[in-house]
# Entry
Amino acid sequence: MNSWNLERVSSVCRERCGGQGYLAVNKFGDYISIAHAALTAEGDNRVLMVKIVKDMITRIKKLGKSLPMMKRCPFRDIKKQDNIVNLEILLDLLKFREIMLYTQLDNDNKKLIQQEKKTPYQALMHETSDVMQDLAQAYGERNCLEYCIANLPKLKNKANLEIMTKVYLLFGAEIINRDLTFYILQGVLSQKALKSLTPIRHQLIKDIALQASDLLDCLNIPKHALYAPIAKDYVKYNASKNMGEVIGAKM
# Structure
């Protein structure tokens, strides 16, 4: 998940910087290369998804573990909400998708193995791969948001609590927005909730952007690694004819 995120952030930032993003001194090439290496360095991300789901099936079927429990009913409660950008609701929606995908995968595998006489390997790798990939990602994202929410109370500073709440809200809202077709087909979101999702997301982005530098500082990234010329002072960087990265590298 981190490596996919790094690739997206690097690519989008490179695009937003226009031609300056092509210059080696501004390091986007380094970040994109690192991201692509991370996608495959310890086993391709998509291959690792298979391991996640196989372990998940083992934990549930053989070790007695259960699927995540929702606090709210998606049909009797969440469907009636005009605004779903609430940490508890977002987490329940992620749990709901994980449960539905696991159920679909389990039913499909039973049919393939029992009725069509496929081997478990054939069923998982060749027949249900798309559902398996979606389930693995849903499992990871749900765990991530669940952990973040559980640790929010540890933040004693009011300002820190407020900004990190917004970060987690945006994380959850972006996932729902990406998978909106699924939730619409399942019939768990009201028309008002659908209409309010985009403007709320946009406002969260604007609020978080104001503190982007502080959030980066929290990641404890060394300044020499983080601040390429265009990030350090893009106004100064573009104030004179610096001949691209040749002179820019001396800043």
Remarks:
- Residues 66-220 form a domain with the Butyryl-CoA Dehydrogenase, subunit A; domain 3 fold (CATH 1.20.140.10).
